[in-house]
Write a structure and sequence with these properties.
single chain; alpha+beta; 3 domains; two-stranded antiparallel sheet; 10 helices; elongated
Length: about 300
């Protein structure tokens, strides 16, 4: 209907004994209202329709044009994972495990290569290689100093003037008089020693910004010993039998890392902590040999 016809209709719908001018004025007002309503209805909606992206296998043409950096959705990660799991450089057995590793890698701001080689799926749980944890902490300015490296811990007993251990009787039993436990550098005067344990220790330091804008340094110290590994049943595992020094180092480091930087690694555990057997190359790189369903917390 044309604008003139609409005006004529509006004129015929005006009731009462008003003048022709009043009728035309009301008709013009009605026409303007309808035009305004029509314009309002034609405005585009602010709502954006989001297309659901489904996983599909990639064709040869897709693969040739694939940008490996563009895996911003789970469907794209699965498509990329279908290709990558066939590579010897990829540690993941399924495209689903690959996808979980990629998602975690993105959360931790890691490059694709690190996610491929250092994020493991152990019994359905993601885990981080200890080298990757070290890199994350270093990137955030957290300093880790190894203060004890597989150091022998001694029990020191009191000796007499001749250098013989002093024996005392307690509840009818003869015992040596233990005066200290510590490293060789901590041996007291007039004492004899015997080895009782082995320990690795780390000291961590981190600058944390406070609410008032100032920075405060926080520190923590973490250790792990052979006796603790025995109590946890770890010394029966192949990786602890073959590489006790490296395993103690990794466990001591991770205890402190979780305490001072849990906001960065979100409590994620290493493969060995989740029960995976591992070995080490000459340069210290951890290699996961097999995966068990035994979880060690």
């Amino acid at each position: 209907m044309s604008e003139e016809n609409e005006k004529m209709t509006d004129l015929s719908n005006v009731k009462g004994n008003g003048s022709k001018e009043e009728a035309e004025s009301k008709a013009n007002t009605n026409s303007e209202t309808k035009a305004s309503s029509s314009i309002k209805d034609s405005k585009p909606s602010n709502k954006v329709a989001v297309a659901k992206e489904e996983f599909k296998s990639l064709s040869k043409a897709d693969i040739s044009a694939l940008d490996y950096k563009d895996f911003s959705t789970p469907a794209r990660m699965l498509a990329l994972g279908e290709i990558m799991v066939g590579s010897k450089l990829c540690i993941h057995k399924t495209k689903e495990d690959f996808t979980v590793a990629m998602m975690m890698g993105q959360e931790l701001k890691l490059p694709l290569s690190a996610s491929l080689s250092q994020i493991y799926a152990i019994d359905g749980k993601p885990s981080l290689g200890v080298h990757l944890v070290r890199a994350i902490l270093l990137r955030e300015g957290i300093i880790a100093e190894r203060t004890e490296d597989y150091v022998t811990i001694y029990e020191y007993v009191k000796t007499d003037e001749a250098g013989r251990p002093v024996v005392s009787e307690v509840a009818g039993q003869k015992q040596y008089e233990v005066i200290h436990k510590g490293t060789l550098a901590e041996q007291p005067m007039n004492s004899a020693k015997r080895p009782i344990d082995t320990r690795t220790t780390y000291k961590f330091s981190r600058l944390v910004k406070r609410i008032d804008g100032n920075y405060k340094e926080i520190t923590t110290t973490s250790s792990f010993t052979i006796s603790e590994a025995v109590q946890a049943g770890l010394m029966e595992k192949a990786n602890y039998k073959k590489h006790p020094k490296r395993m103690l180092d990794a466990r001591a480091y991770m205890i402190g890392a979780r305490e001072i930087a849990d906001d960065l690694i979100n409590g994620v555990m290493t493969p060995s902590e989740l029960g995976a057997n591992s070995s080490y190359t000459e340069d210290g790189t951890e290699v996961i040999e097999d995966i068990t369903h035994e979880e060690v917390s």
